[in-house]
Amino acid sequence: MNTQFQLGHINLSLQRWPLNQPNHSLQAWDAADELLIEAANNAIDNFKRHDTALPQLLIINDSFGALSCALAHCPQINSTDSYLAQQALAHNRAANGLNDQRYQNHDSLTPLPAHADIILLKLPNNHSYLSFILSQLASISRPDTVVLATAKAKDINRNVLEMFGRQLGHAEASLTVKKCRLIRCQPELGKPQPQFPLKWKLDDTPFTLINHANVFAREKLDLGARFLLQHLPVDIAGQRVIDLGCGNGVLGLTLLHTHPDLQLVFSDESYMAVASAKANIELNMPQCLAKTEFLVDDCLASQAEQSVDQIICNPPFHQQHTVTTHIATQMFNEAKRVLKRGGRLRIVANRHLNYQQQLNRLFGHCQQLAANPKFVILEAIKRS
Ligand SMILES: C[S@@+](CC[C@H](N)C(=O)[O-])C[C@H]1O[C@@H](n2cnc3c(N)ncnc32)[C@H](O)[C@@H]1O
User: Fold this and answer.
1) Are 17 and 321 in contact (CB under 8 A)?
2) Ligand 1, from 207, 216, 250, 377: best to mutate by most atoms within 8 Å of Cβ?
């Protein structure tokens, strides 16, 4: 993996998170980061012509800390929905000796600071989340706030520019540079904003689901989840169960409905996912709150060895913009560590991913419990 970042006079060593990923061709920054860093440095120089202090930066959605590290000479607040991105940022800042007091790390649900001179945004590919971010920016921006955003050129279309225009102010995109474009937006005051989180009734159940803007399947039930809901474990009274990669918590919520005495842990690396799961138990099964936990975590990192009876999981197949199975693999390996002897991991997966072979190798066996044209339900039991 190329870890040496070089741009003008900036030299950094940057790694993706988690460390030691199997795909060595991936790196911790992209051309959109480079474009944003160059534009930010021009904006910082411009600011310094009028002001003796350094500008306050607000950085949103930094993938692995490249923006934060490259612009470490300015005070900055970093906001992200991803626990992994926060881990990467802290790791890369420390690795480059940038452990100073000049930065703060906020999660996506912490209100933005009241003031920022320059706002730097890596566009998320989820338009609900972009809309949520724009609504937050609208509440803190002034007409002289510099707002810069980047993404791959293919992800910047008329829709995206119109969304900026509707919620924050007139936006224009640069010509394409290394397949990326830069958006400059001129904030205007008093734009109307959409409401988050999203709420909908789950078909054929008594549940209403609350979905924060960046949660997976925020607008409707995922097809894989729908299939797993038909094949959830039974006879699990009183057990300790983890809904791993819980999203809005629909799997755990359904299990609690039939087994209200479970000790259920909802765990995800997205702050908005964990907040959605919590809101859904509070709304639909408040009597179970005392026995449930809500955890932002990297897979099962904070779980003790041999401490869990059941893990249910609809594993992720991408990290940020990259399609990958390495997080699913990490989840399976860690499931084997935290399951008690006799404990079970039950997953839903796209047929073509062939996780059965992987689980067979890891657990010594793996049973296919059900299948439809698109998905399989697999179960592995920890025997030793
Ligand atoms: C396919 S979605 C499933 C969500 C939900 N369980 C459902 O079925 O609708 C996968 C989930 O895994 C989460 N995830 C991704 N990487 C993770 C990690 N390293 N640790 C924990 N959760 C992760 C994602 O945020 C996402 O919510």
Assistant:
1) no
2) 216
**Ligand 1 pocket check: which of 244, 265, 327 to mutate, most ligand atoms within 8 Å of Cβ?**
327
Confidence of residue 1 (pLDDT cuts 50, 70, 90): confident
Mutate to test the pocket of ligand 1, among 16, 108, 242, 270 (most ligand atoms within 8 A of CB): 270
Tokens of 281: 């138990």
Residues 299, 302: Cα–Cα separation, whole Å = 8
CATH class of 4-187: alpha beta
**What are the phi and psi torsion angles at 174 (to 5°)?**
-70, 175
Alpha helices in 80-206 (DSSP H): 83-95, 127-140, 158-167
- Reported as a single tens digit per residue, the pLDDT across 77-106 is 999 999 999 999 999 999 999 977 789 999
Ligand 1 centre from 112 Cα, in Å?
Answer: 25
Mean pLDDT confidence for 325-344: 96
Q: What is the mean pLDDT of residues 106-118?
A: 96
Tell whether the model's pLDDT for residue 366 goes beyond 80. Answer: yes
pLDDT bucket at 320, cuts 50 / 70 / 90: low
The domain segmentation of the chain, as residue ranges, is 4-187, 198-381
What is residue 209's three-state secondary structure?
A: strand
| pLDDT above 80 for 194 | yes
Distance 317 CA to ligand 1 centre (A): 9
pLDDT at 155 over 70: yes
Strand 308-313, strand 339-350: pairing: parallel
Share of the chain above pLDDT 90, in %: 92
- Choosing among 3.30.110.40, 3.40.50.150, 3.40.50.10490, 1.20.1740.10, the CATH entry for 198-381 is 3.40.50.150
The helix/strand/coil state of 27 is: coil
CA of 44 relative to ligand 1 center, distance in Å: 37
Whole-number Å distance, alpha carbon 131 to ligand 1 midpoint, is: 21
